[in-house]
Amino acid sequence: MTLAVRDLTIRFGGVTAVANMSLDVGAREIVGLIGPNGAGKTTFINCIAGVNRSVAGSAVWGGREILGLSPAALLRLGVARTFQSVVSLHDLTVLDVVKLGAAAHARRRSGFIAQFFGSERTFEDELCESLLKPLNLADVARSPIQTLSYGQRKSVDLARALAAEPQMLYLDEPVAGLTYQEGLNMGAVIRSVRDRFGCSVIMVEHKMDVVMATCDRITVMAHGSRIFEGTPAEVQTDQEVRRVYLGDA
Amino acid sequence: MTFALQLSIAGIATGSVYALIALGIVLIYKCSGVVNFAQGAYAMLGAYVTYALLRVGLPAFAAVLLGMVLMAGIGVLTERLALRVMLKAPIVSIMMVTLGLLIFLRAFCLAIWGPDQIAFPQIFPAGAIDVAGIYLTYNYIAAFVLATTLSIAFLCFYRFTSIGLMQRCAADNSRAALAIGIHVSNQVSIAWAASAALAGLGGVLLATLGGLSLGISDIGLIAFPVIVVGGLDSLIGALIAGFLLGMLEAFTEGMLTPGLEDILRRFTTIQSVGALQQVIPYALLVLMLLVRPQGIFGRSGTERV
Amino acid sequence: MTTRTVLIAAALAVAVALVGYEANRFWAYLIYAVAISSIGAMSLNLLIGFCGQITFAQGALIGVGAYTAGNLGNAGWGALSLLGAGLCGALASALIGLPALRLRGLYFAISTLAAQFIFSYLFKILQPLTNGVSGLVVKPLVLFGRPVASDQEYAVISIVLLFLSWLFLSRLAQTDVGRALLVIRESELVARGMGIDVSRTKMKAFLVSGFFAGLCGGLLAFTSRFANPEAFEIGLSVDQTAMIIVGGLGSLAGSVIGAVFVTLLPEAIQRLGELMPSADLVSAFREMAFGVLIILFLLLEPRGLVSLGQRLRSRWSGSKSNAGTAVTIPLRDRSRTFAMPAFNRRKV
Prior knowledge:
The structure holds 3 protein chains of 3 kinds. Chain B is 72% helix and 3% strand.
């Protein structure tokens, strides 16, 4: 399935945060969304994730208009996201959070009655095997989130999003706050996730080395609109991109 | 018509005192983000303390003033001992601390002065003036004049002096205030001292109007809905809220209750509507919260909904 | 929740029930008083501790349960009157919870305060249902065609219902609904982003919490044979909140511990106070101790007795933490806010 965003505009009061932004994501494609601070990247993601409202434009995912749908409805259509800042869900264990992610995917989840009376051992083992092991979280599956490192929490958030078996994954700054090595690892994880689950990915990110190593295609945003699109190699050599990032040389 | 006027006057007089007490609640909320359920208890304690000072033989003026000073001390004490430690505690815990304070202070006054209502000594001249058939007792006049002057004086202080400026700065953005060198925690203490003192005087005035009893502390909880209606972070809102509450009480008691009871007696077996005046503000609040949660004068964005 | 936890709790319940059945009236009274308060405290903890919805209307809900059970019981509904109390409590709770769909944190708390005052006012004036200020006399609970007359029997019934309530709530905490509550407590925005239907989940919490509050009220009416408006005022809400704070927010076991503490403390002071000259003085000292205690607890042990117990246990058993079981969900530390926007954040 593919995502096609056309002429998306978002305003907050008089401020136009995103103006006529367009973006295409093909099946199994990893698209990087980069740009200086305040370019409107997160606002854009939030909008197609059902958090912010747009004033104009369209976003068609697998033939359906998805603008205006709630995050829950999007999850049912196979669109999941991670969050920029890791939320402090301190009292929950890793498995709890991942199960919550799976809950968005009704087919994978037993009903309330079954959960209430039954044990979930087999389901937990399955989650461990399919999600937590690849993300190096199997050892901490039953630990409360508060005992994990920041990098691990980011992984938990990713596992949570993946538990809903998405066809499209929005990653909002997946490596921000991680160490250099953790960041590179996360990049590799994202590629392997795409390969294993066969989903498309949009990732907003600042760390250029990770973006270059991970993405198939890169879209550069500035002042709320797209200024460049191309392969990582093209982005690195483009004069306009250099100007936006480094100022006039 | 005369009756309605008479009610308005009673309403305005008690309302001005409520405004004084409400001012303190808003001040504390603005400055420290604490919702002080114990404000009514401060009023009650202030009244009892002043009563004790009067009994010792102090002249009225000195007793009231000393009472206010003592209350200011108690305000600072509670802030330093209890609330400062709770800075980052969950909001329910902070609410419970002030509720615990309310329970404690009530019980304290109960232990010392007993449960019965006490006639408060006359500190204002007895008697009344008669203006076109409407009676204005000196008690009412004095309460109104004192409470209003003090409220306005306080607002001016807050608006025009440098301490007031620092107060507003600390309340508006404590981080920025700290950065430009304002001792924020001192400002919070000042706010607590001022509100406790204002509440203490309010309590004394309420006692001159309606006698001295533990019931004075109820005003803290009853005033709450109206303050929210005015806007929890608006001092002007608190003033207007106080007057509104006074009027609402007077008119409910004087007109709505008898009328409603008439109707109810005719059609149902319910004989009395009880203390309707204490519930009307809450009913108003529920409506208000659903329509405009930030209050009439509050800034929107105080709580994002 | 492991099977072991359930078995331990069941054994504990049987033991206490046996003690209650054999004990004299006073001890039986203490046991059912604690058990009934515990049911109420657990229901309140579901809302405040798990879901983060601060409410001060718990007293009103218990009152609704008490009057419903009283009226139904007097009309000969038998054990069904307890079920009716729970259902009416759930209904009233949903009503009080409606503003929570629009309001958050402090403002919702104030709206529940309003609800509490309006309900206790209604208890006073709705003569036909509540018998007004003079209070409603309640006939004994009829169970299996026989009126339950002795305090010992009530102790057993209360303990059994406490165990069942605990079982239900701790199972609930292990489902997606229970986990969603915790996410909502931390951040409604994130909960929504995770695909959780925030409004529906909140409503479920209000319904379940209201049911057990109503059940608590029903038991209260039958054991005291009397329901009067003064019993269900804001003071009861404060007592109940004190229980979950003393015991531990977000912990079912903590609710029970808190209920034991808050229920027994006044009794203890009452015993001591019988040496004092006047009854007024005794009640004044009881209240003062209660007020001071709430404050001291919040200052010195803000995570409740449960966390104190956990710390002691982990000290004895080395560093091995025991944080996996359902009843001892580890608690927030002091440095964290309660997910109430714009309130704590303003502080430096």
